[in-house]
Specification:
The chain has 12 helices and 17 strands. By secondary structure, it is of the alpha/beta class. It has 2 domains: 254 residues, Alpha-Beta Barrel (TIM Barrel), CATH 3.20.20.10; 131 residues, Beta Barrel (Lyase, Ornithine Decarboxylase, Chain A, domain 1), CATH 2.40.37.10. The strands form 2 sheets. Strands 1, 10, 11, 12, 13, 14, 15, 16 and 17 form a 9-stranded mixed β-sheet that branches.
């Protein structure tokens, strides 16, 4: 079994912790840029390729700005995520609004920014027309759910028929017919069927299905598909024994399907897109926490100053995140621990029965692959406060890119006229 190593040293983390106490999330600028460039290189054969970074994964404006510098756009699900994209200088067709159960104001905000709008259901055709006063954009994207036996190696979304996302193929054809009648001239196709798929054939299989539908829309309706968005879903190697997905092989597989299906149909100018969040950012981030208690009952427990409020995936999904005891990377794993947080929930455990080098109060732990769906999924249960986010710059320096919450932040929403708790929202001192 190979060992996963942090992208940062113990000395670096101790230096950072002297200024910004644990717990905190830390991200590697070097890894973020490397992964963005690897993805673009894998699809460089398609001149129109765009990575619409899934903002939901890591909605920090500094990180979104770094990705924008690398040519990435933004995949947004809400008006707030649209605002993040705009604040980072991302505009127009570099933004994709891929949402479901969408309020009218989100459609209007997307139009103001010139974003591509991706419709999740057939009823949203009329919703979009109402929201925009009948003035539809020249291109609309359609999210498709093929149902049937299209499966991927993931345990988060599951079978297509059990997913709330997308419309049936028949509904997509009807949506294109209606939209064409409303003046929409061009279309995009999109599907979101997997999360953390480990197999390299997921994108190629998905692309073949969407390419076939693009040909069908053209032949049956005369509807021209200009964009095929493969969405997200490509996974990462959370466990040491996992084999990393070869993104170059994925790109080559999609190219094979493109040349077999689209090119012969005269659709060789279709642009491709991805909306990777986890693959882009998970390995580029970690949660840093310190051991504050040791407890031995029926198990050996390491109590840390982080909790599920900082990284909820283990508590909610039973997800595996590798843990390194900083400074003991080369030592054998001789003790079996449960690594736990302080929430009043037994599910608040980062690891159960995990073999680690012997650890003690004061040790720093690095929880791997927390750069996506980590800080972004934080919450305030038990009055916990969300932690800081740091960026490890390419020159080795640290930058605070989101401060830790304070008790004043917790009470801030009570600061309104007539509230007897307004004083609690004021800064301490």
């Amino acid at each position: 079994m190979g060992e996963k190593l942090p992208f940062v040293t113990k000395d670096q983390l101790e230096h950072a912790a002297a200024t910004w106490p644990t717990p905190f999330h830390v991200y590697s600028e070097r890894l973020i840029r490397e992964r963005a460039r690897a993805l673009v290189a894998a699809f460089s054969w398609n001149p129109g390729f765009t990575e619409y970074f899934a903002v939901k994964a890591t909605p920090n404006p500094t990180i979104v700005s770094i990705l924008a510098e690398e040519g990435c756009g933004c995949d947004c699900a809400t008006a707030t995520e649209l605002a993040i994209a705009s604040a980072c200088g991302v505009r127009g067709g570099r933004i994709m609004l891929s949402s479901n159960d969408t309020p009218d104001e989100d459609y209007r905000r997307a139009r103001e920014l010139g974003a591509i709008i991706n419709l999740d259901s057939l009823d949203m055709v009329d919703c979009l027309a109402r929201a925009l006063g009948g003035e539809l954009p020249p291109m609309v994207c359609l999210r498709v759910n093929p149902g049937g036996d299209f499966t991927a190696s993931n345990g988060i979304i599951g079978e297509p028929a059990d997913s709330k996302f997308g419309m049936t193929v028949g509904q997509a054809l009807e949506a294109a017919r209606r939209l064409s009648g409303m003046g929409v001239a061009e279309f995009g196709l999109h599907a979101f069927l997997a999360s953390n798929a480990q197999a390299e054939d997921y994108y190629p299989r998905l692309s073949r299905m969407l390419f076939g539908l693009a040909v069908r829309l053209w032949r049956e309706l005369g509807a021209r598909v200009r964009l095929v968005d493969l969405s997200g879903g490509i996974g990462v190697d959370y466990r040491p024994e996992d084999v990393p997905v070869d993104i170059a092989a994925v790109g080559a597989g999609v190219r094979g399907a493109y040349e077999e299906v689209l090119v012969p149909a005269g659709l060789g100018d279709v642009a491709l897109a991805a909306e990777l969040g986890r693959w882009m950012l998970a390995p580029a981030g970690g949660l840093v926490t310190r051991v504050i208690h040791e407890k031995v009952t029926y198990r050996d427990y390491l109590g840390v100053d982080a909790c599920a409020s900082n990284l909820m995936r283990p508590a909610v999904y039973g997800a595996y995140h590798h843990i390194t005891v900083m400074g003991r990377e080369a030592e054998p794993a001789t003790r079996r621990y449960n690594v736990v947080g302080r929430l009043c929930e037994n599910s608040d455990q980062f690891a159960r029965d995990r073999m680690l080098p012997e650890a003690h109060v004061g040790d720093l732990l690095f929880i791997h692959d927390a750069g996506a769906h980590g800080h972004s999924m934080g919450y305030n249960y038990n009055g916990t406060l969300r932690s800081a986010e740091l960026l490890l710059r390419e020159d080795g320096s640290f930058e605070l890119i989101r401060r830790a919450e304070t008790p004043g932040d917790y009470f801030a929403t009570l600061d309104f006229p007539g509230s007897r708790f307004s004083a609690l929202a004021r800064p301490e001192g």
